[in-house]
Design a protein that fits this description.
Blueprint lengths: L17 E14 L2 E8 L2 E8 L4 H8 L6 E10 L12 E12 L16 H6 L1 H4 L3 H23 L3 E2 L17 E3 L7 E3 L5 H9 L4 E9 L11 E10 L3 H20 L8 E3 H8 L13 E2 L1 H4 L5 H4 L3 E7 L7 H12 L9 E5 L5 E3 L7 H11 L6 E7 L1 H18 L10 E5 L4 E4 L4 E4 L14 H4 L8 E6 L2 E8 L4 H10 L4 H14 L7 E7 H9 L29 H6 L11
Parallel strand pairs: 3-5, 6-9, 11-17
Antiparallel strand pairs: 1-2, 1-4, 2-3, 4-5, 7-8, 9-10, 10-22, 12-13, 13-16, 14-15, 14-16, 17-20, 18-19, 20-21, 21-22
Bound molecules: aspartic acid.
Aspartic acid binds next to strand 21 and strand 22.
Length: about 575
């Protein structure tokens, strides 16, 4: 090996030992007769010392080394006179007697420091340099530990990791497919899996009753901080189980991951009905690190001549404790916030229950002191508290209030990244009405089973049918979701029918699964957790990109390898593909 030790492991106990180290030049300092170099590798930094008087030639070659040169040195470990308490190797240095330059380096386009001077785009273009930085390395180490702990837990529970193919046929997770043309089958295409959903169900039919896989999934959809076109799931499926069994096992898994990787004991893992999540938080992924639940004020706020409330389907309030001293400017800023087009509220009403007992609201003209006292009781407000109120159509108002609540939570420091509040959201609706296509879509996916007691509503009131579906939510992030599946052909057919498939379409797309259901399919269900999201959450970041070695940017490009890109005419010909120029919008 080109080293006896790495750059993070030498201590006082190694003093006087002869060692060989290899690494990158982090920085170099010339101080009078001495030159010091910080040598870096994945494990840390070790100081190298060169003395001009003792070995002029060597010291002069050391002075020529630029940042990021790769070098090998031999020398003796010595105690440092001025110690650096900030790094584990800070008590020693290497008195170098041999220097071997393994490779030179151009000056990197940005500094390889914890706080780099490089912008995101530049760092992505040179991601291999960005990956040398400590914060990025620590993220990948965390990801590795999380992966290992996941494998260990699932292995102990008897799960088998089984790989499923990437070149498949469309899987309906609600996004667009990435497709791959087949040279051997002209004019035909594979789709990359949006998830291994149908395969894991087939594995249940095949009798492998506990399956898992850390697997790449591919979805062509608009990107955000927590979405990448390819991402990793902890994908699982179990046979002979009910919802309760799945919730218990995966709750235990996540608790174990927290314990092993973060040293945190999670005791409480509450469950919340989907309907309640929407009613009290306006979101199917509520952040329950803090309260501020919605209170409906319709019965007290309507019928007093204030049109915005009278015409509204719902009047919703949240209470910000001890915020009655919010200034005009702060309240205006909140009003501007809710009026942003992506939030879309028409305005915001506030009531200040001042600490001195006086009350001030933006609707004093319409409401008496008694009215406002009723709102105070309804919201359980105290003197010193502030009510923020939005009104309008039910769905929109809940959505906007969710944003306002999260904004207030952030402003008030209630969304601490080191605190974790997981929960299960359960009893999701089976179907969701889509205005654009004027039909129902599966809220989860078409293989999710309706609740037995709701099946009779499928024809008459499909929107009211609840599913055996559940999501795991932590700190307002959907970490995963799953369901108990349909396992008989007739019900699966009926489901496809309700989703607007003709029997022929259903057979063409999913015949293989329905056929399998006729050969002894056991009851089964499963879940998939977003592995990148879990890593980002554990690391305290909102961006999954930070936890992926080679991520894509928000237009789905890998700017380092410059992909997607054009392909050669011969490749197109082989694939029977013809290109048409992009239409200008
Ligand atoms: N396949 C689903 C998904 O990717 C998860 C599941 O139902 O197990 O969201």
């Amino acid at each position: 090996m080109l080293r006896t030790h790495n750059c993070g492991e030498l201590r006082l106990e190694h003093v006087n030992q002869k060692v060989t180290l290899s690494g990158w030049v982090q920085k170099s300092r010339d101080l009078g007769g001495m030159t010091f170099i910080d040598l870096r590798d994945r494990y840390g930094i070790t100081q190298l010392a060169f003395n001009m008087e003792v070995n002029t030639e060597l010291c002069e070659s050391a002075r020529k080394l630029g940042r990021e040169f790769v070098v090998q040195v031999e020398g003796v470990v010595a105690e440092r006179s001025s110690k650096n308490k900030k790094i584990p190797t800070g008590e020693i240095e290497i008195i170098v007697d041999k220097l071997n330059v393994l490779n030179s380096s151009k000056t990197p386009p940005f500094t390889i420091e914890d706080q780099s001077d490089g912008g995101e785009e530049l760092r992505m273009k040179y991601r291999y340099l960005d990956l040398r930085r400590n914060p990025v390395r620590r993220n990948l180490e965390l990801r590795h530990r999380l992966s290992l702990a996941t494998h260990n837990f699932l292995d102990k529970q008897g799960f088998l990791e089984i790989e499923t193919p990437y070149l498949i046929k469309s899987t309906p997770e609600g996004a667009r497919d990435f497709v791959v043309p087949s040279r051997m089958n002209p004019n035909q295409f594979y789709a990359l899996p949006q998830s291994p959903q149908t395969f894991k169900q087939l594995l249940m039919v095949a009798g492998y009753d506990r399956y898992y896989q850390l697997v790449k999934c591919f979805r062509d959809e608009d990107l955000r901080a927590d979405r990448q076109p390819e991402f990793t799931q902890i994908d699982c499926e179990m046979a002979f189980v009910e919802q309760e069994d799945i919730l218990n096992i995966f709750e235990a898994m996540v608790k174990q991951l927290f314990k092993e990787v973060k040293g945190i004991e999670i005791t409480d893992f509450p469950r919340m009905e989907y309907a309640d999540a929407m009613k009290y938080y306006g979101s199917d992924k509520p952040d329950i690190r803090f309260g501020m639940r919605f209170v409906e004020l319709n019965q007290w706020a309507q019928g007093k001549g204030f049109k915005a409330f009278d015409d509204a389907e719902i009047v919703l309030a949240i209470k910000a404790e001890a915020c009655a001293d919010y200034s005009r400017k702060q309240l205006d800023a909140l009003t501007d916030f809710v009026k942003k087009p992506q939030i879309g509220a028409k305005g915001m009403v506030y009531v200040k229950y001042n600490a001195d007992g006086s009350v001030k609201s933006s609707v004093d003209k319409f409401y008496s002191a008694e009215d406002l006292a009723e709102w105070k009781t309804a919201t359980d407000a105290k003197d010193g508290d502030l009510l923020l109120i939005l009104s309008g159509e039910l769905h929109h108002t809940r959505k906007a209030m969710n944003e306002l609540r999260l904004e207030m939570g952030s402003q008030l420091g209630l969304r601490n990244k080191d605190e974790f509040a997981p929960l299960w959201v359960i009893n999701f609706p089976l179907l969701e009405w889509d205005e654009d296509s004027q039909r129902y879509h599966a809220m989860h996916h078409p293989f999710t089973s309706p609740k037995k007691e709701d099946v009779h509503l499928l024809d008459s009131e499909p929107g009211r049918v609840r599913a055996n579906a559940y999501d795991m939510v932590i700190n307002g992030v959907e970490i995963g979701g799953g369901s108990i599946r349909i396992h008989d052909r007739a019900l699966q057919n009926m489901m496809f029918h309700h989703l607007g498939f003709t029997p022929e379409e259903a057979q063409a797309q999913f015949g293989f699964l329905m056929d399998a259901f006729e050969y002894g399919a056991p009851p089964h269900g499963g879940i998939a957790l977003g592995f990148d999201r879990l890593a980002a959450l554990f690391g305290g970041s909102d961006s999954i990109r930070d936890y992926i070695a080679f991520p894509k940017n928000n237009t789905g490009r890998d700017v380092m390898i410059d992909s997607p890109s054009q392909i050669a005419q011969e490749q197109l010909d082989e694939l029977y593909l013809q290109l048409t120029p992009k239409k200008e919008e």
